[in-house]
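F.,

This is the one I mentioned.
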């Protein structure tokens, strides 16, 4: 089936709450614990958002990102991917605010390409944002994980790649099933995959009930996968997941059953061609 599979865990995001599932982590300490437990279950990458520790509301304080990054690195060799999405940020300095996590020198940062109606909000990712962020990540030596929610976003990313602002191999996260983005279906996933550059690496996520079919397709098609509370809080219909690690373990078992071995962080660094792998 090809290379070993990289499992990313998106431990908290900005929307799930403890009212929805008590296991959703809020504080930096909870996020660190959840990431490390997921590492032990088979995740090579932790995708990190931060929250207000008391209210659980989305936050973007650089000290929270720093605490989580350092806390994970003290405990294990897991790759850390800090978000730059800033979906809830506003004001004239949004681009500069969004790029703050890059300065912490994580292994990867998310790079959202292309705007869309995102459930109940407009997720604005202007051409200026895409160009500025790609150049800045390259300058800082942080690999972008290119998040795309529809095919036009892929075309915009390809333009950035052709201009030399994203190093080879480009790494895409195909975000399937977000309300008003491309819907999660086997046909759409194959369509999106076929639009990627020939040398691209890719991962797929599915929202809610679409998580399992999308990661199954991703495994079969030779891609990588993402699971976690940011995307889905249920292990199966009507059954809340008890932890992010439980979701990672289930995904790893599925991958093994379908003939894909699980990449550890050192192997993931090599696959992604990260310049700082050991």
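My design for it:
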């Amino acid at each position: 089936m090809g290379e070993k599979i990289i499992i990313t865990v998106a431990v908290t995001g900005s929307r799930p709450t403890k009212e929805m599932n008590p296991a959703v982590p809020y504080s930096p300490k909870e996020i660190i614990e959840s990431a490390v437990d997921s590492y032990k279950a088979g995740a090579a990458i932790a995708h990190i958002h931060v929250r207000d520790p008391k209210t659980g509301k989305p936050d973007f304080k650089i000290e929270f990102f720093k605490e989580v990054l350092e806390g994970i690195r003290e405990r294990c060799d897991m790759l850390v991917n800090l978000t730059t999405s800033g979906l809830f940020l506003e004001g004239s300095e949004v681009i500069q605010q969004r790029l703050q996590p890059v300065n912490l020198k994580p292994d990867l940062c998310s790079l959202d390409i292309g705007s869309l109606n995102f459930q109940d909000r407009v997720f604005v990712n202007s051409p200026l944002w895409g160009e500025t962020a790609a150049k800045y990540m390259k300058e800082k030596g942080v690999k972008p994980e290119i998040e795309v929610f529809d095919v036009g976003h892929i075309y915009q990313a390809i333009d950035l790649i052709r201009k030399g602002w994203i190093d080879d191999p480009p790494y895409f996260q195909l975000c399937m099933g977000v309300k008003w983005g491309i819907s999660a279906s086997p046909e759409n996933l194959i369509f999106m995959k076929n639009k990627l550059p020939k040398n691209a690496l890719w991962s797929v996520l599915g929202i809610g009930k679409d998580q399992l079919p999308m990661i199954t397709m991703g495994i079969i098609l030779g891609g990588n996968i993402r699971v976690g509370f940011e995307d889905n809080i249920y292990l199966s219909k009507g059954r809340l997941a008890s932890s992010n690690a439980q979701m990672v373990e289930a995904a790893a078992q599925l991958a093994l059953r379908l003939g894909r071995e699980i990449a550890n962080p050192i192997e993931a660094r090599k696959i992604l061609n990260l310049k700082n792998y050991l």
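The chain has one domain: 7-272.

Talk soon.
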